[in-house]
């Protein structure tokens, strides 16, 4: 039986680099976002997770779906798949790592090997579209 890990992520690209975050106690960077809680919609999950992780408020009126990606990942049980629904959105506030996040970084395509497989698929799409340096 396969396991689906359902996540929502915020895609923020500036100057050819994408915003990534490294949670406390982990050595891997991720596209900011996280798992849905209960019956949350994608948008509700996105707004809550980004405020929790990066202390900014996303503007729900500007949210746009840019793609949904799926991939396995190291450390997951066999057959487990991460599904990541990706959205762009404008934000208010100052980007800053919260208590959950150790560090933020802006990655170019050259940093692709520093993120999990599902994030790498997004990196490939953004690079193909000319958005990632």
From TrEMBL:
Transmembrane segments: none annotated. GO terms for molecular function: hydrolase activity. InterPro entries: NUDIX_hydrolase-like_dom_sf, NUDIX_hydrolase_CS, NUDIX_hydrolase_dom. The keyword Hydrolase applies. Keywords: Hydrolase. CDD domains: NUDIX_Hydrolase (cd04690). Residues 1-128 form the Nudix hydrolase domain. The keyword Hydrolase applies. Pfam families: NUDIX. This is ADP-ribose pyrophosphatase YjhB, NUDIX family.
């Amino acid at each position: 039986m396969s396991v689906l890990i359902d996540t929502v992520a915020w895609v923020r690209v500036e100057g050819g680099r994408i915003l990534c975050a490294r949670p406390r106690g982990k050595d891997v960077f991720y596209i900011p976002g996280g798992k849905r809680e209960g019956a949350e919609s994608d948008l509700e999950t996105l707004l809550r997770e980004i405020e929790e992780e990066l202390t900014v408020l996303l503007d729900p009126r500007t949210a746009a779906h840019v793609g949904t990606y799926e991939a396995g990942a190291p450390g997951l049980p066999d057959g487990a798949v991460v599904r990541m629904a990706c959205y762009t959105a404008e934000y208010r506030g100052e980007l800053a790592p919260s208590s959950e996040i150790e560090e933020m970084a802006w990655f170019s395509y050259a940093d692709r090997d520093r993120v999990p497989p599902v994030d790498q698929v997004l990196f490939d799409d953004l690079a193909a579209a000319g958005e990632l340096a």
